[in-house]
Design brief:
With 179 residues, the protein is of the alpha+beta class. The chain has 5 helices and 8 strands. α1 packs across α3 and α4 runs parallel beside α5.
């Protein structure tokens, strides 16, 4: 039996989801879902096309215990859905602040999966943050709705680079105070 190292962050349970640490076995579904242009272009850091080994490198980074980001899989097995529906993360900043990022596989869009995951992450506040930030590309109003549904407030317009797009694109920036 081979044991794999699991990241130390705790699982977060919702009605339909388990937000759980990344496992090596998740790499195949990550490659399939993140390899979709629609997913990649909705993120800052996923390239398109997804190069060989990118999913495995993401898994290794997610499982590392010395990074500045905690990453969870949106696991739908509680609701008889697939084991991997998407990913959500908290990237640590300074002064008890973090940035929330997420993506959901297109087959599960418009089912409330992202809203449920973001709300659960905010409510559990696993990093004991005072403030959370998030961005959504302006051509992705669905992600903006997810953030406002989770209590984030619009902060302003900005631009962020998207690796998949190969350029900067306009974003909306959001904030959520947790004090």
């Amino acid at each position: 039996m081979i044991l794999e190292k699991i990241a130390p962050q705790a699982e977060i349970i919702t009605e339909r989801l388990t937000l759980r640490p990344v496992r090596k076995a998740d790499a195949g579904l990550f490659a399939m879902y993140a390899g979709d242009r629609r997913v990649a272009e909705a993120t800052q850091g996923i390239p398109h096309p997804l190069p060989p080994g990118a999913a495995e490198a993401f898994v290794a980074r997610a499982m590392a215990t010395d990074g500045d980001e905690d990453i969870w899989v949106m696991d739908g097995t509680r609701a008889n859905l697939p084991e991997v529906l998407g990913v959500i993360s908290l990237k640590k900043m300074d002064r008890a602040q973090s940035e929330v990022a997420f993506w959901v596989a297109p087959a599960f869009w418009n089912l409330g999966i992202a809203s449920e995951a973001v709300t659960a992450l905010v409510e559990s506040n696993p990093q004991q943050n005072c403030t959370l930030f998030a961005e959504a590309f302006q051509d992705n109003p669905g992600s903006a709705r997810v953030l406002t549904n989770a209590g984030f407030q619009y902060l302003g317009d900005a631009e962020s680079f998207s690796v998949a797009r190969g350029r900067t694109a306009p974003t909306w920036t959001y904030i959520r105070k947790l004090d």
